[in-house]
Amino acid sequence: MIEETSTQDIDRRIQMAAEAFQFLKNTTISERAEFMNAVADHIEALGEELLTVTHAETSLPLARLTGEKARTVGQWRSYAKAVAAGIYTEARIDLARPEKQKGDLRKYNVGIGPVVVFGASNFPYAFSTAGGDTASAIGAGCPVIIKAHPAHPQTSQIMADAITTVIKAFGWPEGIFSHITETSYEIGTYLTQHPDIRAVAFTGSFTGGKALFDIANRRKDPIPVFAEMGSINPVFAFQNLLETKAEALAKEYIGSLTLGVGQFCTNPGVFIALKGNPLDRFINALKEEIQEITPAKMLHEGIFESFEKNKSIAIEQPDVELIASVHTESTAGSAAAIKTRAKNFINNRVLSEEVFGPFGIVVEYETDEELMEIARQLKGQLTITIAATHEDVRDNGALITILKDKCGRLLFNGMPTGVEVVYGMQHGGPFPSTTDSRFTSVGPDAVKRFVRPICFQNWPDEFLPDELKNDNPLQISRMVDGIMNSESLKLQTT
Ligand code: NAP
Questions:
Q1: 494 pLDDT exceeds 70?
Q2: Is 228 a known active-site residue?
């Protein structure tokens, strides 16, 4: 049960967000970009204290936090630049053609409305209170109600304060950003069901994301939920490459698998290769490499416990062989890897479940048919990696065709951890890796999730939004009669 005082407080904040939405609708893209750059400046200026607090709350190393903070600042700035350039405005103008009885049609994107963001535990800066979801929603012109992740409450408060300071400095309505610190599924449910909420962004477990997606779809007026959930990010390693670099590949793989104690959604949890000597060499090298990995504390007790539980479940499955496991008495996340045959992997769905942490499964296939069946049975993934030579790719065209349907990002060599914040990035994938494969939650294109198009038919120029006016006062790139340009239209105004 939620306390009545909590629901009253949430109702009040959402009411403020709904009012702030009316304000944001009238801001220009350059005003919103200016706001976003000011938030970036404030976060950048947060000093050692922030890092110390987050380190104490999450156990993440200071070097990693320093990098993540810079990434977060970069997100606000790059999304601001994209917003100011009008990229997500997507202005389309089809001029009237009276001789064909066709009217004037002009379309552009507007913010969808107040957005609830569920902060993630594994990225206390980049995917939490002042993270990419918040930046992209505000960039789209949507107020944000953040449901802070309970694993880093003080960090969340510092970030929330930075945004609130900027709101005050700009004299903008308070309701543009609200910070909800209470922890309970009922609060998350209440927020998602609230009639004034127009979208939800989430990063976390499949259970959490799917629960919120279902709640949103059961509403009288369903709303989109952009949930980024689990993924096992398979690596398909092919023979020519494996023969030449089995040992180097094992080092690369284990580095990615155990990076940040395996607490990345792009962690490569499954490695698939043909049975034989090159794979045996890979496994032997993996065995040695794993022993070198020092167990480290995980983000919070709950994540550690579910890691231990899910790792044990996988290890105890029939027809599974333990490759290596680092033993420790402490409550640190210790790496492990197992091996199984393709048939077992295909038939036992438990082995396709994400184990969030430093844990990998090597799948050994014996025939091309087994390999194809693995691909066909794969659920939607954030990433799939092809470890291959050019010749391997040429020899496996049919398989790669299937894999393209199964992921948001297909890598040719390298490892999937390390998600660049750029336009070309796709961080999302077919269900169940996300609830909407059409969008990314990393890179400026993340803004697209929170806009919707509106078309104006036959409106006089003076009443059109600046984005669609004849003289193009924002000087943005627009599609006019099918051709992109940034020019003003030399037309007679009506
Ligand atoms: P989580 O359990 O999914 O929780 C994330 C947020 O969603 C929390 O704020 C939580 O609420 C809320 N929530 C979860 N289930 C809900 C429900 N049924 N109804 C309403 N709200 C709900 O994620 P977590 O705590 O970060 O970690 C748990 C597991 O998530 C990990 O073991 C891992 O498997 C996975 N994970 C995946 C990723 C990824 O990138 N895909 C990232 C982090 C974690 P409360 O705050 O009230 O608890």
A1: no
A2: yes
**Are 173 and 187 found together in one domain?**
yes
3-state secondary structure of 225: strand
Active site residue 265: yes
**pLDDT at res. 329:** 67
- Does residue 249 share a domain with residue 214? no
Mean pLDDT value across residues 379-405: 98
- Ligand 1 pocket residue status of 240, Cβ below 6 Å: no
Q: How many domains does the chain have?
A: 2
Q: How far apart are CA 227 and CA 137, in angstroms?
A: 14
199 lies in some domain? yes
Q: How many residues comprise the chain?
A: 494
* 3-state SS class at 291: helix
Answer whether 204 contacts ligand 1 (Cβ < 6 A).
yes
What's the Cα-to-Cα distance from 60 to each of 56, 64, 152, 161, 296, rounded to whole Å? 8, 7, 11, 22, 9
Cβ–ligand 1 distance for 188 under 6 Å, the answer: yes
pLDDT, tens digit, 9 for 90 and up, residues 115-155? 999 999 999 999 999 999 999 999 999 999 999 999 999 99
pTM as predicted: 0.95
